[in-house]
Design brief:
Layout: E1 2-6, H1 14-20, H2 24-28, E2 35-41, E3 44-53, E4 58-66, H3 75-87, E5 93-98, H4 102-110, E6 114-119, H5 122-126, E7 132-133, E8 136-137, E9 141-147
Parallel strand pairs: 4-5
Antiparallel strand pairs: 1-2, 2-3, 3-4, 5-9, 6-9, 7-8
């Protein structure tokens, strides 16, 4: 596995970013201000993570996506570990927002994230079409936080 930082031509990664966030206009809100990390296995792009500095203590994962055929192989976990290690020297916490999908929430909570707040109707108010995961429509955005610096 190799993780590469992407600093230019970020829109070249739109296809995989759309796996984690279904609307180009939403991705464009954070893409240029984010640092992109692309995970390759044997030169094949499997996963991507977009991280944005929020303030002096916090970074936010704006997008963490793995192509469906590469899921459940540890790529997203490896990217999270990389992000935690990369930012723990200068930042106290990592936050992220996700939909109310039990599988996704379990994944993040297993890695030390805790729920901090909800934004009611985020997905219905901000997306041009209904977003479904595991057959359930996403409505509220659930924010999670992990402390990375003691």
């Amino acid at each position: 596995m190799e993780i590469k930082e992407v600093n230019s031509n970020k829109t070249d990664f739109m296809e995989i970013l759309l796996v984690g966030d279904e609307e180009v206009s939403m991705i464009n809100r954070y893409l240029e201000q984010s640092t992109i990390f692309a995970l390759y296995d044997n030169d094949i792009l499997t996963s991507i993570c977009a991280v944005m500095e929020i303030d002096a203590e916090t970074v936010e994962i704006k997008n963490l996506a793995t192509y469906p055929q590469y899921r459940n192989k540890g790529y997203a976990s490896a990217l999270l570990d990389f992000v935690f290690d990369r930012y723990k020297k200068d930042f106290k916490a990592v936050i992220l927002g996700t939909g109310e999908n039990e599988k996704t929430l379990r994944f993040y909570k297993k890695r030390g994230f805790v729920e901090t707040r909800r934004i009611k109707n985020f997905f219905t108010d901000n997306y041009s079409h209904p977003i479904f995961e595991n057959g359930k429509q996403l409505v509220d955005m659930i924010y999670l936080k992990k402390i990375i610096k003691k």
